[in-house]
Amino acid sequence: xxxxxxxxxxxxxxxxxxxxxxxxxxxxxxxGNAMVSDELRxxxxxxxxxxxxxxxxPVVVHGGGPQIDETLAEFGVESERLDGLRVTDERTMKxxxxxxxxxxxxxxxxxxxxxxxxxxxxxxxxxxxxxxxxIERMETRSGREVDPGRVGRVTHVNPDLPRRxxxxxxxxxxxxxxxxxxxxxxxxxxxxxxxxxxxxxxxxKLVLMTDIEGVKNxxxxxxxxxxxxxxxxxxxxxxxSGGMIPKVQCALDAIAGGVGKAxxxxxxxxxxxxxxxxxxxGIGTMITR
Length: 289
Description:
By secondary structure, the protein is an alpha/beta fold. The chain is 42% helix and 23% strand.
């Protein structure tokens, strides 16, 4: 009986958040181990469907780095990374599009459909709604400049397509492939696409699912809430470093662009997004203005 009472209490705890964000757009960047484990993949799909049924409008932007690496290895192609961005030649770009747009995107759409959701998979090339320009040169940490290939920087997101889908009862599932002025595909970081899509949609929240617990202080403790000025300070003093910097910068850019709040959460935890959005304590880090 106590377990049943506890479940009812959890539902009551979620009520204020459901009421507050009913009818609002939430953008969720889905990636990391949450896309690898079958259990976590199924759990994520159920969570997104639940959000839709309680009145949220979730928009999913997914990554797929490990799956691209695996496919490239099968083809005998080595992949180099520069500051988190994959060096993408023409052959690699074909694999990126195949894995992100054809395989993973459709798998996520299918999983959501298995749990009663109505999902539609798109890439930024559909309706050319995510436009980007090629990054011509990048400087490595050693100071060497290289051409990263078909790697893009987002220049514009037209929110019409994902908004029509979201408000029309569907869950948009977006693969981070953009299009340049000549109609050619560009590989774009999924966190960046999620942030720019959130800005264009004027989303109330941006949720970045990662393989870390959240933003930590100098003592290694996860900060449940932090504002943008505090984040900048932690970057300056070196507390936030390495691969965490692009993620928090994405969150800061989204907030500066009009997104209400950004959350960095550990996607390795089952129901991570629900726990962060629907409970008082949350499990990750909420970044505010």
